[in-house]
Fold this protein.
Amino acid sequence: MKKLITLLIVLITATAFAQNKNARASMEVDGVCLMCKTRIEKASLNTKGVKSAVWNVKTHELKLIFDERKTNLKTIQENILAVGHDTKEIKATDEAYATVHPCCRYRDESVKDDHKEGEEHKEEDGHNH
C-alpha cells in the first residue's frame, strides 16, 4: 500500500510540472502594416513548436499558441528580433531593423504618421500594404 501511495504522489507531481503542448501567450511587437504582420507571424511560425501566431496591426499584440516542450517565449522573441521587429522588452539590433522594408520603419515618426493617414484612406481606395 505504501508503494502505491508513493507511486500516486510521484505521478501527480510529474503531471503538475508537465509542460503544456498548447500554451497560450501574447506579447507586444512593434510594426505598422500588413507587411510587418506577415514578417512577424512568419518569424514566429518558423520557430519549432509554434502552432499559431496572429499579430494585430492596430494593437501590436501577438497572440501565440505553442508547445512548451519544444520552445519558449524567449526563443520566439529572439526570432522576431532577428527579422527587425522590437518587442516591448527588447529592441532589435540596428542591423536587423535595417532589413525591414522602408515603409515598415516603425521607429520613424513620419512612417507611423503615413500609416495613420493610410488607415483613413484604406477604406476609401481598398489599399492595403
About this structure: The longest strand covers residues 23-28.
